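Same chain as my last thread, 312 residues:
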Amino acid sequence: MENIIEIKNLTKKFGNFTAVDNMNLVIREGEIFGFLGPNGAGKTTTISMLTTLIKPTAGSAMIAGHDLMHDGADVRGIIGVVPQTFSLFNELTAYENLSYIGKLYGMEEAHIKERADYLLKQMSLYGHKDRISGIFSGGMKQRLSLAASIMSSPKILFMDEPTTGLDPQSRIAIRELTQELNGQGMTIIYTTHDMEEAEKICDRIVIMDKGKIIADGTSDQLKHKLMTGYLLEVKMENPSKEILNDLRHLQFVSKVSVSGNKISIVVSKKDGVFYSISDFFHKKKIMIEEIEYKEPSLEDVFVELTKKDLRD
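reply #2:
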């Protein structure tokens, strides 16, 4: 796949505060590409620059062959944006909102009607097309926002935390629609706080913190960056310090930690280790409730990299 977005040293400062710090990144055509990060990481500022809403302080970016700094109109002509909050006209009907967007792009009336009807059906909104959009539920508003963002059939779709605050059914619907659009060849740039969501739909993910990219890869690659080895989890009552220390001295054990009644043991190999750990507890005449191999989660990676500090 070719690179559809190429970012070099992209920086955005607000006074003395650096929101995005010297970002370098390539995004390939046809990807669902995810931005993960805590509050204030720089995700929305990055999207705002790439969609020409705000100007970078320094650096450059090429969007499908168009220079971000000098070809803003061309960039806007090939992208769609689903913002965090509903930004269409509450006083207009669903159809009228889409018609207005179509006219902004210079579409002919017949094409507007055909495209709007098609999208409203795709978003399960056709039966509500003549209702004022301001009275729609949160999920309906977000599906209408998605329809508006692709009214012009863009090459690239930016989705800035599109499922925040939605009920589970609406989140699933938005996720399925996103995957369907990607299946039709659209490149998707997706920002989210939801690790499970990112893991389910994103081909590649970057984790941002304090304006910088601190990790980049597929979900599996990121999870295995966290840990070189295999993770065993043992459940037992009241793990003692003595047991934890004895486990740490086993030849194949590289790390031991405990949380409540669960002992997490990182081992350097997999063959025979399950039996060895079981035998260790058996010889010490310690009853264990459960022992199993565990895969690190994307949330484990996220917390490890960004720490547990609360963000404003």
